[in-house]
Design a protein that fits this description.
With about 475 residues, the chain is α/β, with parallel strands linked by helices. The protein has helices at about 10-25, 35-40, 60-70, 90-95, 105-120, 135-145, 155-165, 180-190, 210-215, 230-285, 290-305, 310-320, 335, 345-350, 355-360, 370-375, 395-410, 425-435, 440-450, and strands at about 5, 25-30, 45-50, 75-80, 95-105, 125-130, 150, 170-175, 200-205, 220-225. The chain has three domains: about 5-120, 3-Layer(aba) Sandwich (Rossmann fold); about 125-255, Response regulator (Rossmann fold), CATH 3.40.50; about 285-450, Orthogonal Bundle (Hypothetical protein af1432), CATH 1.10.3210.10. Helix content is about 50%, strand content about 10%. It binds fe (ii) ion (FE2).
Amino acid sequence: MVRILLSDHDEMNSMIIEMILRKAGYEVLSVAPEFCIGELKSSRFDLLLLGISSVHSEGMPIVEWIRSDASVADIKIILLASSTMKIDLTNAYRLGVLDFIRKPALPEVVTQKVRDALQKIRKDTILIADDDPGNLIAFTEILSICYSIRTAASGREAMDLIRQEVPDLLLLDLHMPGMDGFEVMEALSEIESARNLPVIVVTADDDVDTAAEIFQYGAMDYLTKPIVMQVAIQRIRRILELSHFQNELRDEIRQKNRDLLAANMRLQALSDQTIYALAGAIDAKDAYTNGHSRRVAQYSREIARRMGKGQYEQNEIYNVALLHDIGKIAIPNGIIDKPGKLTDEEYRIIKSHTVRGYEILKNITVMPLLYIGARWHHERYDGRGYPDGKKGQDIPEIARIISVADCYDAMSSDRSYREALPQRKVRSEIEEGLGTQFDPEIGRIMIAMIDDDRDYRMCHSVCFPHQES
Ligand SMILES: [Fe+2]
Protein backbone atom coordinates (compact mmCIF):
# COMPACT_ATOMS: atom_id res chain seq x y z
CA MET A 1 0.00 0.00 0.00
CA VAL A 2 1.14 3.53 -0.76
CA ARG A 3 2.29 5.29 2.42
CA ILE A 4 2.01 9.04 2.70
CA LEU A 5 3.50 11.20 5.41
CA LEU A 6 1.42 14.32 6.07
CA SER A 7 3.07 17.12 7.95
CA ASP A 8 1.40 20.49 8.43
CA HIS A 9 1.09 23.08 11.20
CA ASP A 10 -2.52 23.55 10.30
CA GLU A 11 -4.23 20.78 12.29
CA MET A 12 -7.68 21.28 10.81
CA ASN A 13 -6.28 21.14 7.28
CA SER A 14 -4.25 18.05 8.18
CA MET A 15 -7.36 16.30 9.44
CA ILE A 16 -9.30 17.07 6.25
CA ILE A 17 -6.49 16.01 3.90
CA GLU A 18 -5.83 12.86 5.94
CA MET A 19 -9.51 11.96 5.62
CA ILE A 20 -9.50 12.57 1.86
CA LEU A 21 -6.39 10.45 1.31
CA ARG A 22 -7.55 7.59 3.52
CA LYS A 23 -10.83 7.56 1.64
CA ALA A 24 -8.82 7.32 -1.60
CA GLY A 25 -7.12 4.20 -0.25
CA TYR A 26 -3.77 5.54 0.94
CA GLU A 27 -2.10 4.80 4.24
CA VAL A 28 -1.51 8.17 5.91
CA LEU A 29 0.52 9.18 8.94
CA SER A 30 0.07 12.74 10.14
CA VAL A 31 2.81 14.38 12.22
CA ALA A 32 3.83 17.89 13.17
CA PRO A 33 6.61 19.33 10.94
CA GLU A 34 9.20 19.13 13.71
CA PHE A 35 8.83 15.32 13.72
CA CYS A 36 8.78 15.01 9.97
CA ILE A 37 12.46 14.13 9.37
CA GLY A 38 12.45 11.68 12.30
CA GLU A 39 9.46 9.84 10.83
CA LEU A 40 11.04 9.74 7.37
CA LYS A 41 14.16 8.17 8.90
CA SER A 42 12.29 5.57 10.92
CA SER A 43 9.90 4.31 8.24
CA ARG A 44 9.44 4.04 4.48
CA PHE A 45 7.11 6.58 2.84
CA ASP A 46 6.28 7.04 -0.83
CA LEU A 47 5.30 10.68 -0.59
CA LEU A 48 5.55 13.62 1.78
CA LEU A 49 2.79 16.24 1.91
CA LEU A 50 4.50 19.13 3.64
CA GLY A 51 2.78 22.30 4.84
CA ILE A 52 4.83 25.50 4.57
CA SER A 53 4.05 28.71 6.34
CA SER A 54 4.57 32.19 4.91
CA VAL A 55 7.36 32.67 7.41
CA HIS A 56 9.34 29.84 5.91
CA SER A 57 8.19 29.92 2.33
CA GLU A 58 11.24 31.66 0.89
CA GLY A 59 13.89 29.34 2.22
CA MET A 60 11.72 26.30 2.91
CA PRO A 61 14.19 25.14 5.54
CA ILE A 62 12.52 21.77 6.17
CA VAL A 63 12.79 20.87 2.50
CA GLU A 64 16.43 21.93 2.49
CA TRP A 65 17.13 19.82 5.57
CA ILE A 66 15.46 16.85 3.96
CA ARG A 67 17.47 17.23 0.75
CA SER A 68 20.72 17.58 2.65
CA ASP A 69 20.17 14.38 4.63
CA ALA A 70 21.17 11.46 2.37
CA SER A 71 19.01 8.94 4.26
CA VAL A 72 15.75 10.75 3.36
CA ALA A 73 16.80 13.02 0.47
CA ASP A 74 14.99 11.09 -2.27
CA ILE A 75 11.46 11.41 -0.81
CA LYS A 76 8.89 12.90 -3.23
CA ILE A 77 7.40 16.12 -1.88
CA ILE A 78 4.18 18.02 -2.47
CA LEU A 79 3.92 21.33 -0.66
CA LEU A 80 0.75 22.50 1.06
CA ALA A 81 0.46 26.27 0.96
CA SER A 82 -2.25 28.81 1.59
CA SER A 83 -3.98 30.25 -1.45
CA THR A 84 -2.30 33.66 -1.08
CA MET A 85 1.21 32.52 -0.22
CA LYS A 86 3.94 33.59 -2.67
CA ILE A 87 6.25 30.73 -3.47
CA ASP A 88 9.73 30.90 -4.98
CA LEU A 89 9.13 28.33 -7.71
CA THR A 90 12.72 28.20 -8.94
CA ASN A 91 13.91 27.38 -5.48
CA ALA A 92 11.11 24.88 -4.94
CA TYR A 93 11.84 22.98 -8.14
CA ARG A 94 15.58 23.19 -7.45
CA LEU A 95 14.77 21.38 -4.23
CA GLY A 96 12.84 18.70 -6.10
CA VAL A 97 9.33 19.69 -5.07
CA LEU A 98 6.91 17.90 -7.41
CA ASP A 99 3.81 20.01 -6.97
CA PHE A 100 1.75 22.34 -4.78
CA ILE A 101 -1.65 22.05 -3.22
CA ARG A 102 -3.26 25.34 -2.37
CA LYS A 103 -5.36 25.33 0.81
CA PRO A 104 -8.24 24.84 1.21
CA ALA A 105 -8.24 22.23 -1.56
CA LEU A 106 -11.06 20.26 -3.08
CA PRO A 107 -10.84 16.49 -2.39
CA GLU A 108 -10.53 15.70 -6.12
CA VAL A 109 -7.60 18.16 -6.45
CA VAL A 110 -5.79 16.52 -3.55
CA THR A 111 -6.25 12.96 -4.85
CA GLN A 112 -5.38 13.93 -8.43
CA LYS A 113 -2.15 15.69 -7.44
CA VAL A 114 -1.12 12.83 -5.18
CA ARG A 115 -1.85 10.31 -7.92
CA ASP A 116 0.16 12.34 -10.46
CA ALA A 117 3.08 12.70 -8.08
CA LEU A 118 3.18 8.97 -7.39
CA GLN A 119 3.30 8.29 -11.10
CA LYS A 120 6.46 10.39 -11.30
CA ILE A 121 8.47 7.84 -9.33
CA ARG A 122 10.24 7.15 -12.57
CA LYS A 123 12.09 10.32 -13.41
CA ASP A 124 11.49 11.68 -16.88
CA THR A 125 14.60 11.91 -19.02
CA ILE A 126 15.42 15.19 -20.73
CA LEU A 127 18.04 15.36 -23.46
CA ILE A 128 19.59 18.81 -23.69
CA ALA A 129 21.26 19.51 -27.03
CA ASP A 130 23.24 22.75 -27.01
CA ASP A 131 26.70 23.66 -28.29
CA ASP A 132 27.10 26.27 -25.51
CA PRO A 133 28.61 24.54 -22.45
CA GLY A 134 27.33 27.38 -20.24
CA ASN A 135 23.72 26.65 -21.25
CA LEU A 136 24.21 22.91 -20.74
CA ILE A 137 25.52 23.49 -17.23
CA ALA A 138 22.77 25.98 -16.32
CA PHE A 139 19.97 23.70 -17.53
CA THR A 140 21.51 20.58 -16.03
CA GLU A 141 21.95 22.21 -12.63
CA ILE A 142 18.32 23.21 -12.32
CA LEU A 143 16.64 20.33 -14.14
CA SER A 144 18.65 17.42 -12.73
CA ILE A 145 16.79 17.67 -9.42
CA CYS A 146 13.50 16.55 -10.94
CA TYR A 147 14.66 14.85 -14.13
CA SER A 148 17.30 12.51 -15.46
CA ILE A 149 19.49 14.61 -17.71
CA ARG A 150 21.51 13.65 -20.77
CA THR A 151 23.46 16.22 -22.72
CA ALA A 152 24.69 16.53 -26.27
CA ALA A 153 27.05 19.22 -27.54
CA SER A 154 25.85 18.94 -31.16
CA GLY A 155 22.89 17.92 -33.29
CA ARG A 156 24.65 14.75 -34.44
CA GLU A 157 25.50 13.71 -30.89
CA ALA A 158 21.86 14.30 -29.93
CA MET A 159 20.68 12.07 -32.78
CA ASP A 160 23.13 9.33 -31.76
CA LEU A 161 21.79 9.42 -28.19
CA ILE A 162 18.16 9.38 -29.38
CA ARG A 163 18.84 6.36 -31.61
CA GLN A 164 20.20 4.53 -28.54
CA GLU A 165 17.30 5.51 -26.28
CA VAL A 166 14.48 7.98 -26.88
CA PRO A 167 14.22 10.50 -23.99
CA ASP A 168 10.94 11.88 -22.64
CA LEU A 169 11.74 15.38 -23.88
CA LEU A 170 14.32 17.08 -26.09
CA LEU A 171 15.49 20.59 -25.23
CA LEU A 172 16.99 21.64 -28.52
CA ASP A 173 19.20 24.61 -29.30
CA LEU A 174 18.32 25.99 -32.72
CA HIS A 175 21.73 27.23 -33.83
CA MET A 176 24.40 24.60 -33.61
CA PRO A 177 27.33 24.04 -35.97
CA GLY A 178 27.06 21.00 -38.26
CA MET A 179 23.49 19.85 -37.73
CA ASP A 180 21.18 22.61 -36.52
CA GLY A 181 17.92 22.29 -34.61
CA PHE A 182 15.74 22.24 -37.73
CA GLU A 183 17.81 19.42 -39.22
CA VAL A 184 17.53 17.48 -35.96
CA MET A 185 13.73 17.83 -36.00
CA GLU A 186 13.66 16.71 -39.62
CA ALA A 187 15.79 13.67 -38.81
CA LEU A 188 13.55 12.81 -35.84
CA SER A 189 10.54 12.38 -38.10
CA GLU A 190 12.38 9.54 -39.83
CA ILE A 191 12.90 7.57 -36.62
CA GLU A 192 9.70 5.65 -35.88
CA SER A 193 10.27 5.44 -32.11
CA ALA A 194 11.05 9.18 -31.89
CA ARG A 195 8.04 10.46 -33.86
CA ASN A 196 6.20 11.45 -30.68
CA LEU A 197 9.21 12.83 -28.85
CA PRO A 198 8.21 16.29 -27.58
CA VAL A 199 10.72 18.99 -28.54
CA ILE A 200 11.19 22.40 -26.92
CA VAL A 201 13.41 24.61 -29.03
CA VAL A 202 15.79 27.08 -27.38
CA THR A 203 16.69 30.09 -29.50
CA ALA A 204 17.98 33.62 -29.36
CA ASP A 205 15.84 34.54 -32.37
CA ASP A 206 12.80 36.22 -30.92
CA ASP A 207 10.85 36.88 -34.12
CA VAL A 208 7.51 35.69 -35.48
CA ASP A 209 8.92 33.95 -38.57
CA THR A 210 11.30 31.80 -36.55
CA ALA A 211 8.53 30.94 -34.08
CA ALA A 212 6.23 29.87 -36.92
CA GLU A 213 8.99 27.78 -38.52
CA ILE A 214 9.78 26.10 -35.19
CA PHE A 215 6.17 24.92 -34.88
CA GLN A 216 6.06 23.88 -38.54
CA TYR A 217 8.99 21.59 -37.87
CA GLY A 218 6.96 19.90 -35.12
CA ALA A 219 8.29 21.47 -31.93
CA MET A 220 5.76 21.65 -29.09
CA ASP A 221 7.12 24.89 -27.62
CA TYR A 222 10.11 27.22 -27.66
CA LEU A 223 12.12 29.24 -25.16
CA THR A 224 13.95 32.43 -26.02
CA LYS A 225 17.38 33.35 -24.71
CA PRO A 226 18.23 34.67 -22.21
CA ILE A 227 16.38 31.87 -20.48
CA VAL A 228 14.13 32.74 -17.55
CA MET A 229 14.45 29.53 -15.57
CA GLN A 230 11.16 29.92 -13.73
CA VAL A 231 9.29 30.07 -17.04
CA ALA A 232 11.43 27.34 -18.62
CA ILE A 233 10.67 24.92 -15.76
CA GLN A 234 6.94 25.55 -15.98
CA ARG A 235 6.92 25.03 -19.75
CA ILE A 236 8.97 21.86 -19.51
CA ARG A 237 6.61 20.49 -16.84
CA ARG A 238 3.55 21.35 -18.93
CA ILE A 239 4.95 19.81 -22.10
CA LEU A 240 5.95 16.64 -20.25
CA GLU A 241 2.49 16.39 -18.69
CA LEU A 242 0.88 16.92 -22.08
CA SER A 243 3.18 14.38 -23.71
CA HIS A 244 2.43 11.77 -21.03
CA PHE A 245 -1.26 12.45 -21.40
CA GLN A 246 -1.02 12.00 -25.18
CA ASN A 247 0.94 8.77 -24.72
CA GLU A 248 -1.65 7.45 -22.27
CA LEU A 249 -4.38 8.41 -24.71
CA ARG A 250 -2.58 6.66 -27.58
CA ASP A 251 -2.11 3.55 -25.41
CA GLU A 252 -5.77 3.64 -24.44
CA ILE A 253 -6.87 3.97 -28.07
CA ARG A 254 -4.56 1.10 -29.07
CA GLN A 255 -5.99 -1.05 -26.26
CA LYS A 256 -9.55 -0.13 -27.23
CA ASN A 257 -8.78 -1.02 -30.85
CA ARG A 258 -7.34 -4.37 -29.76
CA ASP A 259 -10.45 -5.03 -27.62
CA LEU A 260 -12.69 -4.06 -30.51
CA LEU A 261 -10.79 -6.29 -32.91
CA ALA A 262 -11.00 -9.22 -30.48
CA ALA A 263 -14.75 -8.64 -30.01
CA ASN A 264 -15.19 -8.45 -33.79
CA MET A 265 -13.25 -11.66 -34.27
CA ARG A 266 -15.42 -13.39 -31.66
CA LEU A 267 -18.56 -12.13 -33.40
CA GLN A 268 -17.20 -13.18 -36.78
CA ALA A 269 -16.34 -16.63 -35.42
CA LEU A 270 -19.85 -16.93 -33.96
CA SER A 271 -21.36 -15.90 -37.26
CA ASP A 272 -19.15 -18.31 -39.26
CA GLN A 273 -19.78 -21.20 -36.89
CA THR A 274 -23.54 -20.59 -37.02
CA ILE A 275 -23.43 -20.61 -40.81
CA TYR A 276 -21.33 -23.84 -40.85
CA ALA A 277 -23.78 -25.49 -38.44
CA LEU A 278 -26.74 -24.50 -40.62
CA ALA A 279 -24.94 -25.67 -43.78
CA GLY A 280 -24.28 -29.00 -42.03
CA ALA A 281 -27.98 -29.27 -41.20
CA ILE A 282 -28.90 -28.66 -44.87
CA ASP A 283 -26.50 -31.29 -46.18
CA ALA A 284 -27.60 -33.78 -43.50
CA LYS A 285 -31.06 -33.76 -45.09
CA ASP A 286 -29.72 -35.65 -48.07
CA ALA A 287 -26.88 -38.09 -47.49
CA TYR A 288 -26.27 -38.35 -51.23
CA THR A 289 -25.57 -34.66 -51.68
CA ASN A 290 -23.66 -34.45 -48.42
CA GLY A 291 -21.01 -31.73 -48.69
CA HIS A 292 -22.86 -30.04 -51.57
CA SER A 293 -23.19 -26.71 -49.75
CA ARG A 294 -19.51 -26.67 -48.79
CA ARG A 295 -18.37 -27.54 -52.32
CA VAL A 296 -20.65 -24.94 -53.93
CA ALA A 297 -19.23 -22.42 -51.44
CA GLN A 298 -15.65 -23.38 -52.38
CA TYR A 299 -16.33 -23.12 -56.13
CA SER A 300 -18.16 -19.80 -55.65
CA ARG A 301 -15.25 -18.39 -53.68
CA GLU A 302 -12.79 -19.46 -56.39
CA ILE A 303 -14.96 -17.86 -59.09
CA ALA A 304 -15.06 -14.66 -57.02
CA ARG A 305 -11.27 -14.76 -56.59
CA ARG A 306 -10.81 -15.15 -60.34
CA MET A 307 -13.20 -12.24 -60.87
CA GLY A 308 -10.72 -10.12 -58.90
CA LYS A 309 -12.77 -9.74 -55.73
CA GLY A 310 -10.95 -9.05 -52.44
CA GLN A 311 -10.59 -11.42 -49.52
CA TYR A 312 -13.54 -9.94 -47.63
CA GLU A 313 -15.93 -10.32 -50.57
CA GLN A 314 -14.65 -13.82 -51.30
CA ASN A 315 -15.42 -14.84 -47.71
CA GLU A 316 -18.82 -13.21 -47.89
CA ILE A 317 -19.66 -15.11 -51.08
CA TYR A 318 -18.43 -18.33 -49.47
CA ASN A 319 -20.85 -17.87 -46.55
CA VAL A 320 -23.78 -16.93 -48.76
CA ALA A 321 -23.18 -19.99 -50.95
CA LEU A 322 -23.01 -22.22 -47.87
CA LEU A 323 -26.63 -21.33 -47.10
CA HIS A 324 -28.01 -21.15 -50.65
CA ASP A 325 -30.09 -24.33 -50.16
CA ILE A 326 -31.22 -23.64 -46.57
CA GLY A 327 -34.85 -23.72 -47.75
CA LYS A 328 -34.47 -27.48 -48.28
CA ILE A 329 -34.73 -27.87 -44.50
CA ALA A 330 -38.46 -27.14 -44.95
CA ILE A 331 -38.92 -29.71 -47.76
CA PRO A 332 -40.12 -33.18 -46.69
CA ASN A 333 -37.40 -35.86 -46.79
CA GLY A 334 -39.62 -38.11 -48.86
CA ILE A 335 -39.42 -35.66 -51.75
CA ILE A 336 -35.74 -34.80 -51.37
CA ASP A 337 -34.67 -38.46 -51.17
CA LYS A 338 -37.06 -39.72 -53.85
CA PRO A 339 -34.93 -41.74 -56.30
CA GLY A 340 -37.41 -41.75 -59.17
CA LYS A 341 -39.04 -39.01 -61.23
CA LEU A 342 -40.83 -36.27 -59.29
CA THR A 343 -44.47 -35.48 -59.87
CA ASP A 344 -45.36 -31.92 -60.90
CA GLU A 345 -46.53 -31.20 -57.36
CA GLU A 346 -43.34 -32.60 -55.87
CA TYR A 347 -41.29 -30.55 -58.29
CA ARG A 348 -43.26 -27.43 -57.28
CA ILE A 349 -42.51 -28.19 -53.64
CA ILE A 350 -38.80 -28.74 -54.33
CA LYS A 351 -38.64 -25.44 -56.22
CA SER A 352 -40.17 -23.65 -53.23
CA HIS A 353 -36.89 -24.13 -51.32
CA THR A 354 -35.71 -20.84 -52.86
CA VAL A 355 -38.54 -18.77 -51.36
CA ARG A 356 -38.51 -20.77 -48.14
CA GLY A 357 -34.78 -20.07 -47.84
CA TYR A 358 -35.46 -16.41 -48.43
CA GLU A 359 -38.13 -16.45 -45.69
CA ILE A 360 -35.66 -18.05 -43.26
CA LEU A 361 -32.84 -15.60 -43.98
CA LYS A 362 -34.62 -12.34 -44.78
CA ASN A 363 -34.54 -11.13 -41.17
CA ILE A 364 -30.75 -11.38 -40.99
CA THR A 365 -30.45 -7.78 -42.10
CA VAL A 366 -26.76 -7.45 -41.22
CA MET A 367 -26.02 -9.94 -44.02
CA PRO A 368 -28.63 -9.22 -46.71
CA LEU A 369 -26.66 -11.20 -49.29
CA LEU A 370 -27.65 -14.39 -47.46
CA TYR A 371 -31.27 -14.24 -48.57
CA ILE A 372 -30.27 -13.00 -52.04
CA GLY A 373 -28.23 -16.17 -52.62
CA ALA A 374 -31.01 -18.41 -51.29
CA ARG A 375 -33.82 -16.82 -53.32
CA TRP A 376 -32.23 -16.33 -56.74
CA HIS A 377 -29.65 -19.10 -57.24
CA HIS A 378 -32.10 -20.96 -59.56
CA GLU A 379 -32.75 -17.96 -61.77
CA ARG A 380 -31.51 -18.33 -65.36
CA TYR A 381 -29.68 -15.71 -67.40
CA ASP A 382 -32.37 -15.94 -70.12
CA GLY A 383 -35.15 -15.30 -67.59
CA ARG A 384 -36.60 -18.82 -67.62
CA GLY A 385 -35.53 -19.70 -64.09
CA TYR A 386 -37.40 -19.52 -60.78
CA PRO A 387 -38.84 -18.25 -58.48
CA ASP A 388 -39.10 -14.77 -60.03
CA GLY A 389 -37.96 -15.23 -63.64
CA LYS A 390 -35.30 -12.56 -63.24
CA LYS A 391 -33.14 -12.02 -66.28
CA GLY A 392 -29.50 -11.15 -67.11
CA GLN A 393 -27.86 -8.55 -64.92
CA ASP A 394 -31.13 -8.14 -62.94
CA ILE A 395 -30.15 -11.33 -61.17
CA PRO A 396 -27.83 -10.30 -58.35
CA GLU A 397 -24.23 -11.15 -59.22
CA ILE A 398 -23.78 -13.34 -56.17
CA ALA A 399 -26.75 -15.47 -57.26
CA ARG A 400 -25.31 -15.75 -60.79
CA ILE A 401 -22.02 -17.00 -59.30
CA ILE A 402 -23.74 -19.53 -57.03
CA SER A 403 -25.95 -20.69 -59.90
CA VAL A 404 -22.91 -21.78 -61.97
CA ALA A 405 -21.14 -23.36 -58.98
CA ASP A 406 -24.37 -25.13 -57.92
CA CYS A 407 -24.98 -26.66 -61.37
CA TYR A 408 -21.32 -27.63 -61.69
CA ASP A 409 -21.44 -29.52 -58.37
CA ALA A 410 -24.78 -31.17 -59.24
CA MET A 411 -23.21 -32.56 -62.43
CA SER A 412 -19.81 -33.46 -60.96
CA SER A 413 -21.27 -35.34 -57.95
CA ASP A 414 -22.95 -38.71 -57.62
CA ARG A 415 -26.68 -38.48 -57.20
CA SER A 416 -29.21 -41.08 -56.02
CA TYR A 417 -30.22 -41.70 -59.62
CA ARG A 418 -26.83 -41.43 -61.41
CA GLU A 419 -23.12 -41.24 -60.87
CA ALA A 420 -21.09 -38.05 -61.44
CA LEU A 421 -20.84 -37.01 -65.07
CA PRO A 422 -17.50 -37.16 -66.87
CA GLN A 423 -15.57 -33.88 -66.76
CA ARG A 424 -15.83 -33.36 -70.56
CA LYS A 425 -19.62 -33.67 -70.35
CA VAL A 426 -19.81 -31.22 -67.44
CA ARG A 427 -17.66 -28.74 -69.36
CA SER A 428 -19.82 -28.95 -72.49
CA GLU A 429 -23.02 -28.52 -70.43
CA ILE A 430 -21.65 -25.34 -68.88
CA GLU A 431 -20.48 -24.11 -72.27
CA GLU A 432 -23.86 -24.78 -73.76
CA GLY A 433 -25.53 -22.82 -70.97
CA LEU A 434 -23.46 -19.66 -71.49
CA GLY A 435 -25.84 -16.76 -72.05
CA THR A 436 -28.93 -18.94 -71.57
CA GLN A 437 -28.68 -20.62 -68.19
CA PHE A 438 -25.52 -18.87 -66.99
CA ASP A 439 -23.99 -15.44 -67.01
CA PRO A 440 -21.50 -15.94 -69.88
CA GLU A 441 -18.58 -14.25 -68.12
CA ILE A 442 -19.04 -16.22 -64.92
CA GLY A 443 -19.65 -19.42 -66.89
CA ARG A 444 -16.37 -18.90 -68.76
CA ILE A 445 -14.55 -18.54 -65.44
CA MET A 446 -16.03 -21.89 -64.38
CA ILE A 447 -14.85 -23.41 -67.67
CA ALA A 448 -11.34 -22.05 -67.02
CA MET A 449 -11.46 -23.70 -63.60
CA ILE A 450 -12.45 -26.99 -65.22
CA ASP A 451 -9.61 -26.67 -67.73
CA ASP A 452 -7.13 -26.06 -64.91
CA ASP A 453 -8.45 -29.15 -63.08
CA ARG A 454 -6.58 -31.71 -65.19
CA ASP A 455 -7.16 -34.61 -62.80
CA TYR A 456 -10.84 -33.86 -62.26
CA ARG A 457 -10.30 -33.27 -58.56
CA MET A 458 -13.38 -31.04 -58.41
CA CYS A 459 -15.50 -34.16 -58.50
CA HIS A 460 -17.51 -35.75 -55.72
CA SER A 461 -17.87 -39.40 -56.56
CA VAL A 462 -18.48 -41.67 -53.55
CA CYS A 463 -18.48 -45.04 -55.30
CA PHE A 464 -17.00 -44.39 -58.69
CA PRO A 465 -13.59 -42.78 -58.81
CA HIS A 466 -13.85 -40.95 -62.09
CA GLN A 467 -11.96 -41.55 -65.24
CA GLU A 468 -12.18 -39.10 -68.09
CA SER A 469 -14.03 -40.71 -70.95
FE1 LIG B 1 -30.97 -25.00 -54.80
